[in-house]
Amino acid sequence: MPEHISIALRGEKVLGLRAEEVEDPADPLIKQLAKDMLIAMKTHGGVGIAAPQIRVSKRVLIIHSKPNERYPDAPDMEPLIMVNPEIISFSECFDTMWEGCLSVPGLRGLVPRQTGISVRFSDLSGREQETCLQGFPARIFQHEFDHLEGILFPLRVADCSDIYSESEYRRRVLGLS
Ligand code: K3U
Ligand code: ZN
């Protein structure tokens, strides 16, 4: 029987907290947390996940960009696990895309975000890394980073008439029945 890890849903207190710094990114407990997050992300069909979404208020996130029905041009990346991520810089350009969230099922919203960012984080060996993300991976990162700050995507929607039910999003945006 596959392991089941449930996802915290909007309204649960853990999703509104600022998550705590990880003192030792190389701690085996953090490796186990990352494994649980990978399982939850894959089981629930996400392209990213943050630790508070499995009810652990720690600063760990994963991004896993891959091409999909909604974002066919997304780059195919291995899952990238980041402990204590920090944003070093943002690009000046913004774009707007429809977002969803495993913790906010049934809703989609049009969210403006910066198109590129540079980030610093620790890997699971405790080594500090820096990377630049562009496009869809940058978007996933900013969405997951918001989870570490206790912010959910509906708060980032610029115009609240751009929040749709999943069925209206499929009908009006994707042109499906
Ligand atoms: O929207 C979702 C999706 C799933 C597969 C392919 C493409 C999109 C599911 S929601 C999702 O994956 C969030 C991850 C979450 F819920 F854990 F925070 C990441 C995300 C999706 C779309 C835009 C920005 C972030
Ligand atoms: Zn989310």
How would you sum up this structure, described in words?
Helix content is 22%, strand content 28%. By secondary structure, it is of the alpha+beta class. The strands form 2 sheets. Strands 1-2-3-6-7 form a 5-stranded antiparallel β-sheet, sandwiched between helices. The structure holds ligand K3U and zinc ion.
Helicity level: 10-25%
SSE sequence, one letter per element: HEEEEEEEHEH
Flag low-confidence runs: none
Tell me, what's the shape? Answer: globular
How many domain regions?
1
Output the CATH class name: Alpha Beta
Cα-based radius of gyration, to the nearest Å: 16 Å
CATH topology title: Peptide Deformylase
Specify the structural class: alpha+beta
Please report which band the strand proportion falls in: under 5%, 5-15%, 15-25%, 25-35%, 35-45% or over 45%: 25-35%
Number of helices: 3
Largest sheet entry: 5 strands, antiparallel
Average pLDDT metric? 96
In the CATH hierarchy, what is the superfamily?
Peptide deformylase
Report how far the terminal alpha carbons are from each other.
34 Å
The molecules bound to the chains, other than polymers, are: ligand K3U, zinc ion
Number of strands: 8
Please identify, by name, the CATH architecture: Alpha-Beta Complex
* Lateral arrangement of strands in the main beta sheet: 1-2-3-6-7
TL;DR of this structure?
This protein is α+β, with helices and mostly antiparallel strands and 177 residues long.
